[in-house]
Amino acid sequence: MTTLGIIGAGHIGTALAQAATDTGYDVVLSNSRGPETLADLVDALADRPSRRGTVRAATAAEAGAAGDLVVVTVPLKAVDDVPVEPLAGKVVIDTNNYYPERDGHVAALDDETTTTSELLQEHLPTSRVVKAFNHVLAADITARRTPPGTPNRRALAIAGDDASARETVASFIDELGFDVVDLGPLAEGWRIQRDTPGYGADLDAGRLTEALAAAKRYREM
């Protein structure tokens, strides 16, 4: 795997582009406004001594098609705009969180019969969606990277219905500089959603596992 496609160039997308190019990935970055609007960001990412991979701007469809691994990091209300066919058969990382004040109310999320990543999986039926990076500050993606075996290494949680896809994402996260706690299926992704003990917390794998186990549904709070 050499190319990371990123759909969404906000704080998380930009941080992942930086961390991935530092690690040696080639990155194809996109947003909703067109490649030309990313020229300054691409120049800034490319003009760093730590960069080992390349970075270029493209459309969302082009970024999806180019990526061996693809990150979707867009507001929930924009999920229906994510291109489907270019992502067919691919592992797709979903970084989303539900903000009703931004996204509007979604009944299935309000009553907790589904999760944000399950909604993306429904939109991308032939892709393999893995929830990740939704509970970490963008700045920490670049600032908290450490080598494997570092004591108290920061850990991130993942969830996905396909075991091999989870392994792919876990390996990617390890390359970027973090340990991984595997929650299993997408339905378990609620354990790291907003207002849970692990959300935003800087924890190693052991403490993150404890925080995930302590999570409660919103209706139980």
What general outline do the C-alpha atoms trace?
Answer: globular
| Percent in helix | 25-40%
Q: Strand order of the main beta sheet, please?
A: 3-2-1-4-5-6-7-8
Mean pLDDT level: 96
Which structural category do the helix and sheet elements fall into? alpha/beta
Strand residue percentage: 15-25%
List keywords for this structure.
221 residues, eight-stranded mixed sheet, Rossmann fold, 8 strands, 9 helices, oxidoreductase activity, alpha/beta
Summed up, what is this model?
The chain is an alpha/beta fold and about 220 residues long.
Structural account:
With 221 residues, the protein is an alpha/beta fold. It has one domain: Rossmann fold (3-Layer(aba) Sandwich). The chain is built from 9 helices and 8 strands. An 8-stranded mixed sheet has the order 3-2-1-4-5-6-7-8, sandwiched between helices. Strand 1, helix 1 and strand 2 form a beta-alpha-beta unit. The mean pLDDT is 96. This is Pyrroline-5-carboxylate reductase catalytic N-terminal domain-containing protein.
Element layout with pairings:
Blueprint: E1 3-7, H1 11-23, E2 26-30, H2 39-46, E3 55-57, H3 60-66, E4 69-72, E5 91-94, H4 100-103, H5 107-110, H6 116-123, E6 128-131, H7 138-143, E7 155-160, H8 163-176, E8 179-182, H9 205-214
Parallel strand pairs: 1-2, 1-4, 2-3, 4-5, 5-6, 7-8
Antiparallel strand pairs: 6-7
